[in-house]
Amino acid sequence: MPVLRTVTSVSSAGLMAMVMLACSSADSAGSPDSKNYPWHTNIVSTTFWVGEVLDPNAVDGSQMVSAYDANWYANFGGCDGVVADGRCQTEPRSAQNDYFPTRITPLQNPFYLDLPYDDINIEANLRGRAEVVPWADEPEYLGRAEDRSFSFMKNRWVKLKKGDRICFGQVQDAGPARYDDARYVFGADDARPANTRFNNAGLDVSPALNGCLGFQDLDGSRDRVDWAFVDEAAVPEGPWTRIVTTSPVVVFSE
User: Signal sequence span per UniProt (predicted)?
Assistant: First the structure.
């Protein structure tokens, strides 16, 4: 949630610097946020949703679970869409309802997304995450690099931009199709996603983000976005802060 701070005294020069910084951040989607996380531009995004079953025969074909939550469907509160003929299907979202699902009251933030880096289920990622994840040196992550029950990715905030629309969401899964693309996810050179499926998609977004960003397709692979990680303190209030997901990893039973 946004952190509000009260300034009791400041010099005129300091105040002017603060005002200029605030205006710069508000006016440009490319302005640095806290740690100067790099922007990833013109990235194809598909849409996914809790309860979607894309391919029941594929290991990663069901959104009943996520990379970080073995009970995602129940913990979210059910189908993030409409159940028709026994299938959980997506639905259009409206600003009038803050882009929230219309059939359930979600228990977690409906503004969620995935990125192709699974930091707990891929052994090489688990071993190397302390070196590649930019916030690994923050106090809550120090000393937890080998803890498989703790994710460096889950619940992290991402800023997304499409045209003149800017929305925010939390990482709650890994994908699409690739789970080890550290160069794209964390690199500073705007690398293209390694994934070649779904029109070379570099992330999936939830129905809430689909509506908030004004996607052309309800469920397609033509829409493109710019995105960057953002620290929680830099996330402004909006429909994405009505419910903030803070739940830990729910591991899969052996």
Answer: 1-28
